[in-house]
Design goal:
This protein has 6 helices and 24 strands. By secondary structure, the protein is an alpha+beta fold. A hairpin with a 2-residue loop joins strand 23 and strand 24. It is rod-shaped, with a radius of gyration of 35 Å.
Length: 480
Amino acid sequence: RTRMGRVVLLLAFLVAAFVCAQCNPGLKVAISSSGLEYARKLGMQYLHQHFTNKVIWIQPQQGSSSGFDYWIDGININQIGVPDGQAHFVPGQGIRIHSYPIGGIVNLAWKVRQNSWPNIEGYGNAQVGFYNCGIRTLIQFKLNGQGLPVVVAEHAGVDLPEVWAKIWGSNMDIFSGVLQEILTSTIKREGPKAIAKEIRSAVDHGMTGFIQKLPTEVPFGTVAELDYALVSDPATTAGYMLLPMKGEAFQQHAPKVEAPFAPAAFPDPTGGSSEVQVFLSSYVAQSALYVYWKAGALTKVITASEIPAQSPITFNTSSWQSIVPPLYTRYPNWLMQMTMTPTSYPVLTCTAASGVQVTATVNLDVQVVNPTNKQVSTAFVALVKVVADLKASIKGNDIISSISYFNVNATISSSNIGYFNPTSFQGIVTFVGEGIVVPLANQYLAKGMPIPGVDGLQFISPSLSIQNGYMAISTNVVYN
């Protein structure tokens, strides 16, 4: 029973560890305090545009004060000004925005009646101005029930404004004083409340619309797409906001199938001195390699037409006569081709000491083409160990790379032409790798892997460093 209990505990631990690994994001983005300041400026521009020519209507008000009953309707706020504001992170809550000094003009109609004999009434209109009003709003970023990011703005406080009133109508000699008190106190109470509600609505819709423009599925070449969806609510500290994203590649136009490995844990970016930091786990590129391998897109057939005309080696058995003699003896003057098929998905690693490295094991099928019927048959198969170092950099909003070191080691795994000394063949494998495979790979790598962003967002002076298990990108941004 004790042994069974230990087995159950071990299985539970392994399952928990697997689930935890699956929860690890593949990509993390941190927005620093300086990034928040840039976002605040954009937000203030948005609020200025939103309130230009905006009219806010307030529900009719009625009540009693100092022996008078009053009714106020047709209350509308216009000429609203939101000149400036401040923003800062609130740990564990979100972003607090303090908009100030807000001002505006309120137009309204009023009616007043004495609530005792002789019950004199008065009617008229007024214009009430307010200024130096401050409104504090707490912005929270969350995932809704459909897993989409939304912005929720909550009212967090008001600095009461200073007001003035211009009043005209009947019986002003009786009602002037009480109207000043009634109208200014009403607008002090209801005006900021209405503007705060409008700001929350503008933030909810505007920022939710903006954040939902972040593409969650980004094509990566013609085979894979990168899933950049948020995997949990963003987290805030005093110095930055952290956005955890899935960061996994899937095959395009196909049901999503998880890779048979999970992202390892890696550090959180903290924003630093740059506006944005992006930590990209090696898992992102590794899952893309898995997708390409699974789809058969890493299999490559090299034909005679792809060999440069000036090459000392051609894909004709005559050219191989001194390198693989049995090949020429059995198939004299036949055209050839090579089919390269990885035995499994290539493995990509990132280390601070060695940079980005890719290793792969490839079956190299050396084939001949029958000159009569064009039938292709295998002459021999080599098992090739490949090691490539990549040099990565940022171009635009993409991570581009190129092969800076390439090494191959070939052994003969099967032969239909009998034994031959494989030493000379090693030189051909190196020639094909460096002369054909590396240039083709560099063409593809130069297209880049996209970093998540929205249209109009550009990186300014980005830097990239390779760390243990991830790439770290620090950059400022500009949004047009």
